[in-house]
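Why do we care about 3D structure at all? Because function follows from shape, and shape follows, mostly, from sequence. That is the central idea of this module. The next example makes it concrete: a single protein chain, its amino acid sequence, and then its structure expressed as tokens.
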Amino acid sequence: MKVIKLASILLISLLGAFFFSACSTDDDTTEVRLAEVTRSIFYAPQYVALSQGFFEEEGLDVELTTTWGGDTTMTTLLSDGADVALVGAETSIYVYAQEANDPAINFAQLTQTDGTFLVSREPIEDFEWDDLKGSTFLGQRAGGMPQMVGEYVLKQNGIDPHEDLEELIQNIDFGNIPSAFASGTGDFVQLFEPQATQFEEDGLGYIIDSFGTQSGNIPYTVYMAKESYLNDNEETVEKFTRAIQKAQVWVQEQPADVVAEAIADYFEDTSLEVIEQVVERYRDQGSYAETPLLQEEAWYLLQEIMNEAGELPQEISYEELVNTDIPTKIMNE
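And the structure:
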């Protein structure tokens, strides 16, 4: 079973506690160290909260670090190298299943669908999922959330990924998947944005369906903190959540081009036009959560998907790892 290398993570967390601590500046602005699992337009509301000053309005100085991968992100959080992590909710389940003394608690949701798209090498009119049968499919890394959702969606559409495909490729690192497809590997590929839209722009592929719309609502990317941090810094977490909710509302209300301009500095290698297209696509399919509250039904769908993939170590109750008090309080203000 693919689970985060938690023995190492928990050991690092014990050592790291001696070296890191949250702090406040002299002007009473509270510093929050935020680790994001990757840099993605999928997280647009987060960058809006930063660029539009919503964190500052709450008296927070948020230091953003990209930690590139779920394992690294959770190691950073558990070792006190970050106060808050933006990462897939499944990682909190992996940590809890290893009987962590200070588990990671999910307190605010940012994205509520899978963020990948099905891209074909050739244009396909009237696409049906049966078109994948007998093809070479370039999927995401085995054991990760994109791969679990990808296989779940294939099965929901009558495709056995290990029987109906000529070849299922899952051994290519996340960062190398787009270049592998561009160089000729695979008939179909599962891609995040902006690569999917950029491939269409460059004539390298064609977006034919969305894993996000196919999979339903799940807590795909959430903010979490160690239980001890939540207990000791409840007011700070409330302020953080309030800033995120302001950004969530702003992203829903503003035109896509305005949102694109607001986050463009975080994506210097992507054209403003592509950013705008990606924002509009994610928003139209409901990928951006409109509130920070992680829904109970979505929590159990996540575990159903993990179980289907053989990656669920144990079922964890909603109440155990999801804090609803903070987002509910913010939403009712």
